[in-house]
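User: Can you predict the 3D structure of DUF6532 domain-containing protein? Sequence below.
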Amino acid sequence: MYQRFAQVRGEVKTKAQGIVLANYGIKLSMGPFKIAERVEELLKRRNYTFLDPDTRFKPFQNTAYLILAGQQWFCDASALGVGPFHFRFDPLPLPTIAFMTVAIQCALIDWRSGVFKPKPNHFTLEAYRKSYHVVLKRLTDWQKRHPGKMVELRACMWSQLRALSGTPRVDDSEDDFLDEDEMDQELEYRYDNLYTLHPVDEGHDGENGENGENSGESA
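Assistant: Sure. Here are the predicted structure tokens for DUF6532 domain-containing protein:
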């Protein structure tokens, strides 16, 4: 079970690494100093989460979210966000948004020095637990204060991802041969753990790695 969680983290970080440069306008021709400067600007107060990081316009709506989620969970008809269990992504869950947020953070930190250094910045539970919980709390608080707007945002993200996947929505009327309990028994892992960064016992806080602690917990 734990190996599967680690595998998902690795897959998502790899995809995030392939997104951050082009998505945030970072070019190798800028040189190490300018790249490092830009990365710090993006990491500050988690500016990278905004649709426009420079003006902090529309939080948690940067196109990196759609690209990352599209590649990981909406890539084809058999993907988790598209197939028979698509209802678990409608609207897009808060833990999934928080998970992507820290994955993008981790990928940006790889460039913090101005050159690509993925080691020792591993996307591990110990290093990014604190960052994940900070982001998830902020999302949860936001939803409590503005439930309508937050649900609308999450539903919009889901609709955009379904459209980008190019696959038709599953006809739920054909899925009544299994109830939810039976379907859950068929899953290899529990959804509420898969898309979080903490698959181990919540009572164990672990060590907060320096990567997570120094990268915008005040979001």
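The two ends are 31 Å apart (CA to CA). Residues 2-213 form one domain.
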